[in-house]
Amino acid sequence: MSAIEMSGTALGALRKQRSRKGSWALRMAILTAVVAVAPLLLYPVFLIKVLCFALFACAFNLLVGFAGLMSFGHAAFFGMGSYISAWTAKEWGLTPELAVLAGGLVGTAMGAAFGWVAIRRQGIFFAMITLALAQMVYFFCLQAPFAGGEDGIQHVPRGRLLGLIPLDNDLAMYGFCAVVFLLGFAVIHRVVHSPFGQILKGIRENETRTASLGYDTAHYKLIAFIVSATFSAMAGGVKALAFGIATLTEVHAATSGHVVLMTLVGGMGTIFGPVVGAFVMTAMEQYLARFGSWVTVIQGLIFIFCVLAFRTGIVGEFNRWHGLWRARRDPAPAGAAPARKSSPSQHAGDAS
Amino acid sequence: MTALASVPLELILGQLVLGMINGAFYALLSLGLAVIFGMMNIINFAHGAFFMLGAFVAWLIGFPNTWLPMISPGLSVPPWLAVNFWGALIVAPLIVAAFALLLERIVIKRIYGLDPHLGLLLTFGMALVIEGIMRNAFGSTGNPYPVPPQLRGGFDAGILFIPYYRLFAVVAAFVICLGTWLVIEKTPIGARLRAATENPKLVLSFGVNVPRMIALTYAGGIMLAAAAGVLAAPIYSVNPSMGTNLVVIVFAVVVIGGMGSIMGSIATGFGLGIVEGLTKVFYPAASSTVIFIIMVVVLTTRPNGLFGKAR
Questions:
Q1: How far is CA A203 from CA A6, A67, A326, in A?
Q2: What is the tens place of the pLDDT at every residue in B68-107?
Q3: What is the DSSP string of B263-295?
Q4: d(C-alpha A281, C-alpha A285), whole Å
Q5: A164, B97, B133, B309: which has the highest count of C-beta atoms within 10 A?
Q6: Counting one residue from A and one from B, how many pairs have CB atoms under 8 Å apart?
Q7: Which long-range contacts (CB under 8 A, 24 or more apart) does A260-263 make?
Q8: Residues 14-43 of A with CB under 8 A from B
Q9: CA A347 – CA A321 distance, rounded (Å)
């Protein structure tokens, strides 16, 4: 993308930004309503899983979709978060919200350390470095006594929320999950739609240029990495408490691939994409469970299909059609930012 | 070196030999990755899968009568059709490379010139599919591949026993690496390849068929991985997941070495294998993570890698 095009889109983005004030509250309201109604239609345990992965995918998307940093090692944060929450809840008897917070804090520390190392290289090297670092965490969890080796940490109590409300009921646990998810979603959404988020997008589109405008890009990338790691760890923590177990599966590279796939299917760089992707993939897994070992083959095929023919994901595709439909309904006013051909990186803009 | 006094020398030497072998595989695989990356700007996540396929093809063509009856009882071929290790060392990489070329023509060529992340995602998907299919077809348990009869046994080097085959694997890998270096640095084809890596448009305008060269480069990189797989077959058992963990380590090796020079890749691969072997002696708990720790140290001191140029 040329510099002139880039400034055009940046202007367009800013204009859109201004015209959609209050969209944050509206989106949150819609999402809250959906989350509240969902248990009437689907099983709470299934929904808990969806929400945990949705938060994980949203956190991952902050990094890849908005800052253009492709991490292939996010399982490290998700898995470590689940181990820490499980361990503190079981051994120290922390209440669930504190256990999740503890997991999140460890995620923050790890994010700072990993980010500091990984942002030294860009693009494809960044992905390889995060993958290698995550592998290190996997071996650590395999050997560390507290993590219980191949068995993981089992029989984790759900405990009492704030020391008062028991979460043994699945619906109560779902409520707790929903609150954590909505909080995380709200924060990530705010980050994306803030001046900070604008600079992240600038880094995604053209880091050199953003740096030449006087922004310390390394600093911004590091903060994005830390926020992303924190919420990934919290998502892992909630999942460990809800299912009463933290195992090596969560730290394994396959989980890193999983979150990439969910975000890709839903739509990288879209707000609701990761949520939709998490729902679709989790539902598909439930449905395909009887195929056993063929699941990885199917996942691989979905990866290939998405990369070749479906790069913007479900939500991105929807936005495109919606945009075409709106353009047909009311032709563009003069002076609007010209429609552009999507860039290779195929970020579907910042619409829902 | 007080530690040397407490650790038996043969243990150190034994691990050194093992480390050399692993290092040989790291070198072969990272070399292929670097060549492919230089030409196509794609990090081939499926590299470990092709390494595994190399080992599997060697086993499939070497022992058809062990797996044919699985398909239908009584199915078998005359024993003279089985390809021995030496044949497999030539044939298996060719078969795997032909398969890789097919994938390149059908799938990978569609993302040339796009965001390099897409190449990573695409090849990751390919790795999942290849590995999943192999696991479904042959199960997760390994299949033993016997050492070729010419290389059975070993020699007593006074303090330790070195199997001939392991020595052969290290030397063979080293020779293949050197051959690759010679082809790229000292032949007209290699000169064109380097030029195409620098500036594909210009080379294309000189009338060189760049797309074909890209395809052949990809095939060459895959052949290196598959040859490593064949060499690995008699040492490790042949199983579907043998390439998975390897590919992550090789990524770290590539990051440590940088992708600046071929000799750099070879030296880094062998060096890290040896370091890993020695870690097994002195501090076994860290042996699986030592390469990643070195990666962190290198990144903080020389972000472009030991031999890397800033890209």
A1: 12, 6, 30
A2: 777 777 667 676 667 888 888 999 999 999 999 999 989 9
A3: HHHHHHHHHHHHHHHHHHHH-GGGTTTHHHHHH
A4: 6
A5: B97
A6: 122
A7: A260/A60, A260/A64, A260/A70, A260/A72, A260/B121, A260/B124, A261/A299, A261/A302, A261/A303, A261/A306, A262/A53, A262/A56, A262/A57, A263/A57, A263/A60, A263/A61, A263/A64, A263/A65, A263/A313
A8: none
A9: 15
Compute the distance between CA of residue A262 and CA of residue A258 in angstroms, rounded to an integer: 6
Count of alpha carbons within 13 angstroms of residue A53, beta-carbon side: 29
- Could you tell me what percentage of chain A is helix, strand and coil, using 3-state DSSP and rounding each to the nearest 5? 75, 0, 25
- Rounded Cα distance, B227 and A310, in Å: 35
Whether pTM > 0.70 for this model: the answer is: yes
Q: Which residue of A has its CA nearest to B248?
A: A132
pLDDT computed for residue A4 by the predictor:
45
Which residue in chain B has the smallest CA separation from A311? Answer: B118
Contact (Cβ atoms closer than 8 angstroms) between residue B258 and residue B309: yes
In a mutagenesis test of the B interface, which of A255, A301, A303, A306 is the best target, namely the one with the most B β-carbons within 10 Å?
A303
The alpha carbon of residue B299 is apart from the nearest alpha carbon of chain A, in Å, by: 7
Q: Please count the other Cβ atoms lying within 10 Å of the Cβ belonging to residue B12.
A: 18
Count CB atoms within 10 A of the CB of residue B283.
11
Of A129, A294, A302, the CB nearest to B299: A129
Q: Is A293 on the interface with B (CB under 8 A)?
A: yes
- CB spacing of A140 vs B289 below 8 angstroms: yes
Taking alpha carbons only, the member of B32, B295, B14, B268 closest to residue B166 is B14
Q: Are B148 and B86 in contact (CB under 8 A)?
A: yes
> H or E element: which one contains B1?
none
Residues of A in contact with B245 (CB under 8 A): 135
How far is B220 from B213, CA to CA, in rounded Å? 10
Helix H or strand E encompassing A216: none
Chain A residues closer than 8 Å to B34 by CB: none
Which residue did the predictor score with more confidence, A165 or A240?
Answer: A240
Q: Across-strand partners of B162?
A: B155
